Amino acid sequence: MLIVGAPGAGKGTQATDLAAAYGVPAISTGDIFRANIKNGTDLGKQVQEITAQGQLVPDSLTNELIRDRLAQRDVTPGFLLDGYPRTVGQVDFLTDLLAEQGASIDAVVQLVTDTDAVVERLLKRSEEQGRVDDTEEVIRHRQEVYATETAPIIDVYAARGAVVEVDGMGTVEEVAQRILAALEAKGFSPAA
Ligand code: AMP
């Protein structure tokens, strides 16, 4: 499964809970990049500036990272990707990678949110957590990148009948309930 939504739509929190409900790992490319930056790895050095500016890391780097991650054992029962794919090029890569194993994405949870409300939420978070790099300019830029680069991937998956649209406004619990209900309605029940 994939979870897709604008930056600040609450994807990360929902991804963790949803993956736990389905008994699969939640894989966040953003978290992997942040861990690499924190540990000062070569990859971290390559992506530090790019992520701080709210740009997308080049597909070549991101796709190889996903190839490695999806080669690990824990994804055998399935997986939930959070923050990947983010471009149509990444969708094509993922589709081919999974097809090599006779697999495909079953469902794409799309969290639908209001941009102004989300920007406000992010500004509050950056103040509370002292994320000095998250200026309003960077936050707005991330929303624009989402609209131009990432939103088109939803059309690709919608054409495959895989998109499950969920209202992402409300409390964490409300949204989590909506996601589970929408997936069950599509025939995807969590692990017993
Ligand atoms: P996130 O926590 O998912 O918002 O990711 C944080 C940052 O990591 C993004 O703003 C991008 O700079 C980078 N990033 C994460 N996932 C991707 C991806 N799939 N493609 C390109 N860049 C990504």
TrEMBL record:
Keywords: ATP-binding, Cytoplasm, Kinase, Nucleotide biosynthesis, Nucleotide-binding, Transferase. GO terms for cellular component: cytoplasm. One of its GO terms (biological process) is AMP salvage. One of its GO terms (molecular function) is AMP kinase activity. Pfam families: ADK (PF00406). It comes from the Bacteria. Its EC number is 2.7.4.3. Gene3D superfamilies: P-loop containing nucleotide triphosphate hydrolases (3.40.50.300). ATP binds at residues 8-13, 125, 170. Residues 28-57 are annotated as: NMP. Its main location: cytoplasm. Monomer. This is Adenylate kinase. The gene is adk.
